[in-house]
Amino acid sequence: MDRWVDAGQFATGFFAFGQIATGFIAVGQVATGVIAIGQVARGGIAIGMVGFGLVSISMMGVGVVRTTALLGVGGTAGWGLVLPLVALPGRRARLPPTVSLAQLAREEVSAGWVAATVEAGPEGIPVFSVDGGRDGAREREVRLDARLRTALDGFVAGGPRRALVHITREDGRLIWDRALSRPRPAAARVGAWVGAALGLATLLAIAFVFWWVVALPIGELLRGPDGLLR
Question: pTM of whole model > 0.90?
Answer without folding.
Answer: no
